[in-house]
Amino acid sequence: MVVVDSVFAPIENDLLALNRNLKNMIGARHPVLYAAAEHLFTAGGKRLRPAIVLLCAKASSENSEIFSSQRRLAEITEIIHTASLVHDDVLDECSTRRGIQTVHNVFSTKIAILAGDFLFAQSSWYLANLENLQVVKVISKVITDFAEGEVRQGFVRFDLQYSIEEYIAKSFYKTGSLIAAGCQGAAMLSTSDAQISNELYMYGRYMGLAFQIVDDILDIVGSTAYLGKPAGSDLLQGNLTAPVLFSLPETFQLAELIEKEFSDTDNLSYALNLLNKGSGIQQAKDLAAEYLQAAIECLNNLKDSSNKELLKKLTLTVLERIN
User: Which Gene Ontology BP terms does the record give (predicted)?
Assistant: First the structure.
C-alpha cells in the first residue's frame, strides 16, 4: 500500500534494521528450532506492530528520537506476534500463512509448538534485559491475554449465541492487547508522563480492535492471493466475526450453514455469497471506523509534531485495506 509506505518512510531504516535483527535474535542452539522460527520471519508480513511502536516512540519523545530500548521493544513485539501465529496455525489447522506453508506443515506439529514456545521465551529474555519493570509488566501480560483469547475462541466455535460484545473482548485479547502494550511501552521508555503513556495504550487498543475487524472482513471479501490463505478460512473454522455476527439477523440460511458446520462442499461459498449480499460487512466497517476515530482522539494531548500526524495518517490507512 502506497499510503502505508509513505507513513513508514521516516522509520524505513529502523524497520530494515529490525528485519535483520529478528533473525539474529532467534539464534538457537538447535538448528531445527532456528529454521522453524526463521521460516515465518522470512515470509515477511506487515510489520505493523513494530512500526507503531517506533512511531509512538518518536511521537512521545522530546526530539523525535528513538532510543535503543524502544527499537528492542519493537523487535520484541514482533517476536511475540510471530510466536502467537505459529501456535494459532496449529490450533486452527491452517496450511498456509503469508502465502507460504505454515511451520507445522513444513516441519511437524511438535516442532511448531516448540518453536512458538521458544520465541515466547526469547521475547521474555530480551524484555527482561530492558531493565524497566513497568514495561516488563505491561508487555508480559500480553502473553497471558493471548492464551485467554485462544481459550475464549476455542469454546465458541460455531456458537450462534456468541455476541458482538464477546467478539470484541476476544479481539482485544488476541490483537488489541499487544498493540496497546507496545504503544504504552514505547511511551514509558521515553517519557515519565503517565497520562501520555495511558492515552497511547488506548490508542493502540482501538487500533488493534479496528485492525482485527478489518482482517475479519478481509477473510470474507479478500482473494486467496491477497490473504495468503483461502478466503473464508476463519469462518470455516467456526470463528464467528463481526461481519458474520451482524449478518446473522438478516438471513436464516447463514445460521443454518453455521449449525451444519459447513458440512457440504458448497456450504462455505454459499455462506460467503450471503455475507457479500447483506449489510453485515458494512456494519463491521462502520464499527472499525468508530474505533479508528476513537484512536485518533487519544492522540489529542500529544505535542503537535510530524510524528503525531504520521500516527493519525496510519490510523486512517487501516480502513483503506478493504476499500
Answer: isoprenoid biosynthetic process; quinone biosynthetic process
